[in-house]
Amino acid sequence: MRAGLGDAEAAGGRDAALVRLYHVSKSYLAGTWALHDITLEIGKGEFVFLTGPSGAGKTSLLRLIFAAERPSDGQILILGRNVGRARESAIPPLRRRIGVVFQDFKLLPRRTVEENVKLALDVVGTPAREARARTFAILKQVGLQHRRHHHPLSLSGGEQQRVAIARALVNEPELLLADEPTGNLDPEMALEILELISGAAARGTTVLVATHDQTILRRYRRRTLRLEGGRLVEDTPAPGTQP
Amino acid sequence: MSDPRPLRALSARALYFGRTALRGLRASPLTSMVAVLTIAVTLVLSGAFALVVKNMQGLLERIGEDVTVTAYLADGLGDQERAALAARVQTVEGVQEVVSVSKDEARRRFERAGQGRADLLQALGENPLPASLEISLAPDRRNAEGVRIVVESLQGLPGIAELANAQDWVQGYAGVLSLLRAVGVGLGIVLALATLLIVSNTIRLAVYARRDEIEILTLVGASRTFVAIPFLLEGALQGALGGALAVGGLAGLYRLALPSLASALTLVFGDTPPAFFAPSEMLVLVAIGALLGVVSSAASLAGGLRQ
After folding, report:
1. Which of A62, B16, B88, B287 could form a disulfide with A122 if both were Cys (CB 3.0 to 4.6 A apart)?
2. CB-based contact (8 Å) between B8 and chain A?
3. DSSP-derived secondary structure for A109-126
4. Can you give the pLDDT at residue B207?
5. What was the ipTM of the complex prediction?
6. DSSP code at position B142
7. Mutate which: B10, B22, B220, B305, vs A, most A CBs within 10 A
8. To probe the interface with B, which of A95, A138, A165, A176 has the most B CB atoms within 10 Å?
9. pLDDT, tens digit, for every residue of B80-122?
10. How many Cα atoms are found within 13 Å in the side-chain-facing hemisphere of A37?
């Protein structure tokens, strides 16, 4: 391991960066690297795409950022916390500050839309009345307030992804991660989902979206990180911004 | 992100835990039923043992309360000599009261208790029953050690032919009781371990069936404790339900079996009617069930929840 960075140092460093990776590598099998020597920073309020072919390491990178995995080497600072060195008990509080959206939605089929979204509020102990109000508000924001008593399987794929986005945003996270959020959706639905994510970014949430959908990348033209074979091969700034 | 006040957050979490535990019971009724019945069967078997031991213990305590020593007197002792001996015995430390029983009185008692066998004595001609002194002990001497001390003091007094007391019988009964208690505890431990194994495996199935929920909970920031508490609560509910079922089952068995076992029970418990568990003891049985459920859940969760 390289010299460690403490939480305090991270906090006292470039404040604007919510995500900082220093020479991060991840290996699941000895001798093969899912990610190799990745160094990057994502500033507060940025909307960044992570792209690359299948197997490039996009999901592995997201999993490292929301602390589902620990790096094999290097340092990861997320919201001022050194994830690689954090105690296990420090991970849940960190995750409450991060919203995550997956390609397969990860909704509970036996719970209603409202219950699925409220789960994120139950975890932080939000009182019932406040939780109901906030759930209603976020479902209204994604256009699903009228379907709050339905079960996920009775909804279309696009609607299910909107529920997942509502659950990710209901706690007002500082960082929103989305792993191929439009992978299972038709192009029209995909754009609707990206509009919601883009809206969250416009309200100040830092967003990192993994996608290999070129239509989306061309349409939104944001800073784009490109992974290939586990290496960061390109970091293209948004048009009109300084690299 | 708002920061709900701790008390409100705590009550919101408690509500969530209770709701989730009940939802868990409803979601897997078959595994829940297996867990409840396993705990109930264990507690019925252990409870039945405890009930027998409790009644024997009760009898032993009651026997202890009216323990007496009987001194059978030598033949040919006159009334005056018997009265003098009774007065002498009365002075022995630990003796509370002495009742003198003449040969004739002993015969009358035999005839009353003999219920139609009085002709046995008539067949013998001369009254073979000895006169005796019935010696009751001071309350602090009504135990095996107290009896032994009094008996030693009486031994060798002129006029006393034989001393009889319930000391040996009480000790034998107490020995059987200790053995039963040890067997009951051993049986309870073996059954509890078997129950833990069965119930923890059924709960493991429930955990496996809800792995998606656990994954999503950890993704939205739930701690291990937060994920585990509903499962522990579910185990406690299953255990308490099993305990309540066991109490009901035992009460039913007790009522059904009592009439047909009455004569056999008289041999073990004497004239004392057997007693069922007191309400507080029933609660203890339910609490033991709940504890079994919680420990089984904890065993099935140990190492099973990863962040």
Report:
1. B16
2. yes
3. TTS-HHHHHHHHHHHTT-
4. 83
5. 0.84
6. -
7. B220
8. A95
9. 888 889 999 999 888 888 998 888 888 888 777 665 566 766 7
10. 1
